[in-house]
Design goal:
Layout: H1 30-54, E1 58-65, H2 71-78, E2 87-91, H3 97-100, H4 106-109, E3 118-122, H5 131-134, H6 136-140, H7 146-149, H8 154-170, E4 174-182, H9 185-197, H10 207-213, H11 216-230, E5 237-241, H12 245-261, H13 272-287
Parallel strand pairs: 1-3, 1-4, 2-3, 4-5
Bound molecules: adenosine-5'-triphosphate and magnesium ion.
Magnesium ion (MG) binds at residues 67, 206, 209.
């Protein structure tokens, strides 16, 4: 799969109309895609082993999307073959009082993956240029200096802060991959209705999701600007067609596999002392009766 199709080039205006939500590439149906997803999950598991053993890099995977776009399912499926010891998932909801007493990057910084690990953010600091931008009253109740809250350039400033933060991460071996699961407004409606009409899915439905849907165009504007401003070669954004869950999961897995493969990771090489150590241990074990 050519993943460049989904990657947002650095410095380019993003036009979401160029990214059909129902794209499924060369795949005509679910069956073939599920087979390839399974193969990718196996590759991912091998890549994770070497990531962990080498203990040099870490991977931060960020998921952002409108409600019901499939973040939870993508995380569950794509990460299903991984060793839980080397993986961590954090979901960022409305900030707590304690979190609000810090800058907006604080709670996410605390949750960064350590070397050798894969960290997943279900929502992230991008919420602070998305939901907070769509609902300016959220910003107004925060304890920020007035001249910052009321500066019309606040979003551009935050884009720059996020770029700087991500540059710091990548220059310290933490590789950031960002996924926007791009679902259509019609498909979201169908999924909400299914959550309402299926008793076992009722718990997933929240009437606030329908309220947020009313701000669809504002969200798309905020996503467009945030993604255009913060997609870089080192910390790229990918726009994932999300109307077909089987395709979005496959595309996400493919991108993670390809990007991790580019890191050219190796299992640590033994030095002379280690090698001698192994030979001695082998001798000792073999001499046991
Ligand atoms: P799910 O609905 O599948 O459980 P979710 O991520 O939508 O997952 P919710 O508890 O429904 O979880 O929603 C979390 C809400 O918190 C979202 O509406 C999100 O926009 C909001 N949120 C996240 N970060 C911030 C933030 N920094 N400031 C304000 N709201 C935020
Ligand atoms: Mg929700």
């Amino acid at each position: 799969m050519k993943i460049e199709k989904f990657q947002v080039p650095e410095g380019k205006e993003l036009n979401l109309a160029d990214h059909p939500t129902d794209f499924t590439g060369d795949y005509s149906g679910k069956e073939e895609a599920v087979k390839d997803l399974k193969a990718n999950i196996e590759k991912l598991s091998e890549l994770q082993s070497v990531l962990y053993a080498e203990d040099v890099h870490s991977i931060l995977i960020i998921f952002q999307a409108m409600d019901a776009a499939g973040k939870d399912g993508a995380i569950k499926h794509v990460m299903s073959g991984l060793n839980p010891q080397g993986t961590q998932v954090f979901s960022f909801k409305q900030p707590s009082r304690e979190e609000l007493d810090h800058g907006y990057l604080w709670r996410c910084s605390k949750a960064l993956p350590e070397r050798g690990r894969i960290g997943i953010f279900n929502r992230s600091y991008y919420e602070d240029v998305l939901v907070v931008r769509v609902h300016p009253q959220i910003l107004q109740i925060q304890q920020l200096p007035d001249e910052i809250k009321n500066d019309p350039n606040i979003w551009q400033q935050r884009f720059q802060q996020i770029k700087n933060f991500e540059q710091y991460l990548s220059e310290n071996g933490i590789h950031v991959l960002k996924f926007f699961l791009n679902v259509s407004k019609e498909e979201q409606k169908a999924r909400f209705l299914s959550r309402i009409n299926t008793p076992d899915k009722n718990w997933k439905f929240s009437s606030s999701d329908v309220r947020e849907r009313g701000f669809w165009d504002d969200y798309m504007h905020a996503y467009r600007e945030a993604i255009s401003a913060t997609s870089t070669a080192d910390s790229p954004w990918f726009i994932i067609p999300a109307d077909k869950k089987w395709f979005s999961r496959l595309a996400v897995s493919e991108i993670i596999v390809q990007k991790m493969s580019e890191l050219n990771m190796r299992y640590p090489e033994l030095n002379e002392i280690h090698r001698q150590d192994l030979a001695d241990a082998k001798k000792l074990l073999e001499s046991e009766e």
